[in-house]
Structures are given as C-alpha cells and as structure tokens.
Amino acid sequence: MEQPSARQGQLPRTPASLRSGWRRWMPGLEMLRNYPLAWLPKDLLAGLVLTAMLVPVGIAYAQASGVPGIYGLYATIIPLLVYALFGPSRFLVLGPDSALVAIILAVVLPLSAGDPARAITLASAMALVSGLVCAAAGLLRLGFITELLSKPIRYGYMNGIAFTVLISQTPKLFGISLDSAGPLHDIPGLFQALFDGKANWHAFAIGGGSLAIILLLKRFERVPGILIAVVLATLAAWGFALEAEGVQVVGSLPQGLPGFSIPLIGLNELTTVLIGGFAVALVSFADTSVLSRTYAARTRSPADPNQEMIGLGMANLATSLFQGIPVSSSSSRTPVAEAAGARSQLTGVFGALGVGLLLLFAPDLLRHLPVSALAAVVIAAAIGLFEFRDLRRIYRIQQWEFWLSIVCFIGVVVLGAVPGIGLAVVIAVIEFLWDGWRPHYAVLGRVAGIRGYHDISRYPDARLVPGLVLFRWDAPLFFANAEQFQSCVLQAIEQSPTQVRRIVIAAEPVTSVDVTSADMLIELEQYLRSAGIELRFAEMKDPVKDKLRRLEVLARIGSDVFQPTVGAAVDVYLEEHGVDWTP
Asked: Residue 309: is it exposed, middle or buried by C-beta count within 10 angstroms (0-12/13-18/19+)?
C-alpha cells in the first residue's frame, strides 16, 4: 500500500519496529529528517496561537493543583520541548491538565501545609514518579495496561475527579478563600461562606462571565474561547480597577526561565508521593493513549502506545527536574493546535518558545488577570471531563457495570482522588476475576439442520450422545475458577440422562492454564477414572497443550487425550465404545 506523501499532510513514516538506534527512541529527530519546509510557516503560526492559550491554562491548572501559577508555565515549556523529541504523535500538546488537578492537590495540600516551596517540591516529586513509571512501562512494552480498566470504571473515576475539581474551584469563582478538603467539606463550607456574605460579587461577575463565554464559544472549534475570556477579564479588572474592590489577580510573574532542581522529599512523605505519582501515571497515560489513537486514526498514521508512554514519561521526568508539575496530553489544547494549522511537533516547540519569551521579556503582561477567571477556565475543563451520555447507554444495556461506575465515582468523591483511583483499580481487578470466576459454560448436543454441536440450554431439542458428555468452558482456566470448573463438570455428569462413560472438554475458548488449574485437572482425572469415566479434550490450542506439558499434567493423565474437533471426539468415542448413534 502506498504511503501518504507530505503533500497529503503526512510524513513518510517507517514503522517503529523497523527503526533502530536513536530513530527508534526519538521520533522527533526522525520527523526532522523528512520535514517539508512548506510546513514551517504553518507550524510557526499554530505555535503562536497555541502560546496564547498555554499561558492562562498553565497558570490556572497550577493554581488549582495547589502550587503558584508560574510553575504551571514551567510545566508547559519543558514537556513540550521534550515530547517533541521523544513523542510519536505529531499533534499532541502536553502540559498541566484538569484531569490531574485533583490528584496533585490531594497530595500537595495536606503535606505542604501552605508552604509554596514545599508544594512545588512535592508536585515535582510526583512528576518524577509518574515519569519513571511511564518510561519504564513503555520500555517494557506495557502500553496495554490502561486497557485493563473497563470503560464504566474509567467514567466513574473521571466523573469523580471532575466533580472534585468543580467543587474545589467554585469558591474561587465567588472570590471566596476556602481551603479545599474534599467535596464533602467544601460544599457546606461554600454555602456557609455565601450565607455569611463573604462572596465578592465583582469577582463572581468576572468569573461567571468568563465561564459563560468559554462554554458558549466551545462549540466553535476554531474560536479561542479561553483566550477571549481571559483577555476580556484582564481588561475589565484593569479598566475598572477591580483590585481595589477586593478582586484577587495573578500579579507579576517571576522573570526568567526555570532552573534545575532535584525534588527532595522526606521519608514520611514518600509513600503518599509514590501512590500519587502512580495515579498520575495511570490517568495521564489513559488520556494520552485515547487522544493519540484518535489523531492517529484521523491522520491515517500508526499509533505507538509504548513510545507514547516513553514520550509522556520523559516529559514528566524533565519537568520534575525544572520545577514543574505532572503533565498529560490536553484534549482542549491539542484541537486548538490542529485547528490553527499544526503539521508537526514543531508547533509545540514554537509554543514553548513563546511561553519562554513571555517570561523573559513580558512577565507583567498578565498581572491584572483575575483569579476568578482562572477558576472559570478550570471549571470549564472539569465540565468537559464529565461523561453522562454513554453512562445512560450503559445503564440501559448492562446495569451492574453502571453501578460499578457509580461506586468508583463515590469512592473518588468520598475518599479523595488518590484513594479513589486505587479503589477503581481494585474494582477493575475484582471485575476481571468475577468474570473469570463465573464464566459461561455449556453442555453440547446435536441440533437437527445445524452443523456442529451446540448449547442444549438454547436448543432443548438437541440430541445427546449416549454415555458421552460434551462440556464447553468459555474462559481461561486459572486459580479463581478452577474449583468452579471442577464443580460444573461433575454437575454436568450427574445431570446426564445416561450412564456416563466419557466426558470431552470442548477447550477452544480455554486460552491459558496455571498451576492451580493444572493440579485441579490431575485431581479431576483421577477422580473420574476411579468412577469409570474417561476425561478427554477437543479443540485445545497448541500453546495450551504446551503449558499442560510443562505443568506435568500430560505426564499424569496421558498425552493421547486430545482430538482436533468435537466431531472427531464424538466419532472416536462411538468407535471405541461401539455405540450405535448417528451424528
């Protein structure tokens, strides 16, 4: 198949598996080797447009995460430069993200005790942990791990995070200073502050107006609603001297670029930071993998989840060493870059350079930006995280998975973002084990007019082979369902209308066995043999046979117990036992 050319908006790409050396690990350099100069003006313009959005969003997400806004800009510059080198996607924009706000805040707020320097050290340490986890997982080719969380569970924890962020930012919308302690405490505290008349209605007019503008313009993909709202809010605060009315503003930003700094934390903080960093890695890669696959499909280019993990990990590692906070891909800034005409990773590089130039030469540009407007930016992003439509569909078609999602949501809201995500992982494991613990199984019979053998519960008129039970198990065999398998086999034998001489396990759905299930098969065969019943298998895959051989099952039950098909197993039984039965 012909590769798309640069004229079609594509770069010729060598599959990642065929690249070697630096070309394998640094896709950005590979991109530069084939970069069409005609793309340069488009990438430059898109980078300038992106810069205008990166600055207010970076400040807003940093403040929402419990650290000073300047560190959100540091976490914008470094990751964009590093991802441009190690990231495989030409379009993804990395930086501070609303999905990570609640997780970072849950770690930073209680441990920093209001000390900004301590807060950024803790946040940077979380980025370091997240970077190491993502990079190691990418190198070990574990890019599939986020797929272990089912869609309802992902919806649940993301809805919980969105709700937590929404509630934590609402007081700032009213100009109320309230130490966030989780939604269960923040909601009563907000109503009490409103009842006591602590709201600043000038701040609310700015914040509420900014939120309305962002939400109204969100439907127009090419209109920078956040930029428009922030500019108007800044002009209003400056023109009407709202600082004198008690409206909080960002103030002057420190001039200059971030310096190198290793985030050193105490041993008493290590466990919390490790858990928080792992949670950040899980959420950020889940979001990044979905977004990268979306743009890969749109541009008809291959997705590389393992390299995506490495790119994300290296970006977090780098930002942790330059006073940054954890980062992820952005589902709001990436479309802005694409709509502005981005063609490659250079868009992110130009965006990072734009933010850096702002800090070097115009740090006072946003000094009149109201904090309530930044809260509106974060609230708008949190609203975009909620998922209700698909949950309604899930409720309609599979209610128990809907309630799993609700449990995850409640866990995040009640326990906090980090324990809530831990709960989501535990529920995902339980869900997996439950599905494997109680899989579908069937006794098979011959159905008139239909080839093969089929479930007698669905075809009550199916004919059974006298003295033979055909039993199908629709799952891998492992420790959680070994006893269940044995119980179901014995039950099928007991319910047979004729004296059973042989049972054949239709094993095509069995994709694996472990030590526990292997020992169970040996015990089952010995028990059946003592009862005068033979155990046989049909349609078992060769890799599973190899496992049974390694686990010493075949040495105990024999190696001549397999037939290629259920039909062949029936024919062999009829011949060996002299049964007169027509298939």
From this structure: buried
Interval 87-141: pLDDT, tens: 888 888 999 998 899 999 999 999 998 899 999 999 999 999 999 999 999 888 8
Strands 468-473 and 453-455: unpaired
- Residue 457 to residue 454: CA distance in whole angstroms: 9
CA distance 317 to 95: 13
* Angstrom distance (rounded) from CA 248 to CA 372: 8
Q: What is the Cα–Cα distance from 100 to 288, expressed in whole angstroms?
A: 12
Asked if residues 172 and 375 have their Cβ atoms less than 8 Å apart, the reply is yes
Measured between alpha carbons, how far is 579 from 466 in angstroms, rounded to an integer?
8
Record the tokens describing residue 123, joined without a space.
Answer: 């946040």
Give the bridge partners for 442, in sequence order. Answer: 472
Residues with Cβ within 8 Å of 561's Cβ and at least 6 positions away in sequence, in order, are 535, 536, 537, 554
- Nearest alpha-carbon partner for 78 in 324, 386, 313: 324
Helices (H), 438-565: 482-494, 515-530, 542-550, 554-557
Which tokens is 422 given?
């831990």
CATH 3.30.750.24 is the classification of domain 441-577: yes
Q: CB of 34 within 8 A of CB of 323?
A: no
Whole-angstrom distance, CA of residue 168 vs CA of residue 506: 55
Q: Using CA atoms, how far apart are residues 427 and 523, in angstroms rounded to an integer?
A: 32
- SS3 sequence, 302-357? CCCHHHHHHHHHHHHHHHHCCCCCCCEECCCHHHHHHHCCCCCCHHHHHHHHHHHH
Q: Amino acid identity, residue 45?
A: L
Q: What is the pLDDT of residue 17?
A: 45
Q: Which two tokens stand for residue 220?
A: 């127009």
Domain boundaries, the chain: 42-430, 441-577
Cβ distance 403 to 156 under 8 Å?
Answer: no
Taking the C-alpha atoms of residue 553 and residue 521, their distance in angstroms, rounded to an integer, is 7
Q: How far apart are CA 507 and CA 515, in angstroms?
A: 17
**What's the mean pLDDT when you consider all of the chain?**
88
Give the pLDDT confidence of 19-29 residue by residue, as tens digits: 555 566 788 88
Which among 305, 314, 285 is positioned nearest to 17, based on CA atoms?
305
Structure tokens given for 291 = 């977004």
Helix (H) or strand (E) holding 504: strand 502-506
Number of Cβ within 10 Å of residue 261's Cβ equals: 14
The yes-or-no verdict on residue 187 having pLDDT over 60 is yes
| Phi, psi dihedral angles at 39 (to 5 degrees) | -80, -20
Q: pTM value? A: 0.75
Distances (CA, A) of 185 to 54, 119, 191, 192, 416: 32, 22, 10, 11, 12
Q: What's the burial of 219, exposed, middle or buried (CB within 10 Å: 0-12/13-18/19+)?
A: exposed
Q: Mean pLDDT over residues 184-203, rounded?
A: 90
